[in-house]
């Protein structure tokens, strides 16, 4: 008797914790991003404290179509999948490349953007013309990114940072030879750093997807429906024009 009562109380406590623990409600779509990946997600706006970007506009439409209010959580890139699988967030919108390794842990939407890795170096560096030239170079990357994985296959001198910003800073200070990063954010960093240049090498294309917890088909179907509609009605192209100038 005592035993079953204890079990009942625990269940009750667990239910209350689940409902109140992470402050999530059915009316809110909690989206996790790492807002250091312009133009997909970055901190900006009039007061410099808003999270904006291509992925955020996509998430806004997804939430609207699902009849929910959007809430953005700015999380370290490397922690996004853990946050999703612990129920802290409902969806990842963070320029995340669809990879077989990640597909083992999350479900991805249809691809919404094609990208590739590129190299950033200081203007005076003419030593890189092919992927082979990256061997033995000191490479800075963003922790947990596809660039990080790729760099580690190419060189044993790889330093990983929490954001691409920090990797670029290290390059500007000539502490590393190059940064390996996704094409669009690299182009965005380049605009603000004329002392750097971009080198496009023969890297395979990558495709970004939005991610949900494994088995969350209701949300996944709704996301895919929104993406399809946005591609058909011109809203997707308008977003590309708005963010990828
Ligand atoms: N596309 C890369 C990846 O998925 C980098 C994404 C990012 O840094 N936000 O690993």
From TrEMBL:
Is Signal there in the keyword field? yes
Say yes or no: keyword Oxidoreductase present: no
Q: Which InterPro entries match?
A: SBP_3_CS, Solute-binding_3/MltF_N
Where this protein primarily resides, as one coarse class?
other
Keyword list, A-Z:
Signal
TM region(s), chain numbering: none
Query: Which part of the chain is the Solute-binding protein family 3/N-terminal domain?
Result: 28-245
Q: What subcellular compartments does it reside in?
A: Cell envelope
Q: Pfam families from the xrefs?
A: SBP_bac_3
Similarity section: Belongs to the bacterial solute-binding protein 3 family.
Name this protein carries in UniProt? Arginine-binding extracellular protein ArtP
Species whose genome carries this gene: Vibrio stylophorae
Taxonomic lineage of this organism? Bacteria, Pseudomonadati, Pseudomonadota, Gammaproteobacteria, Vibrionales
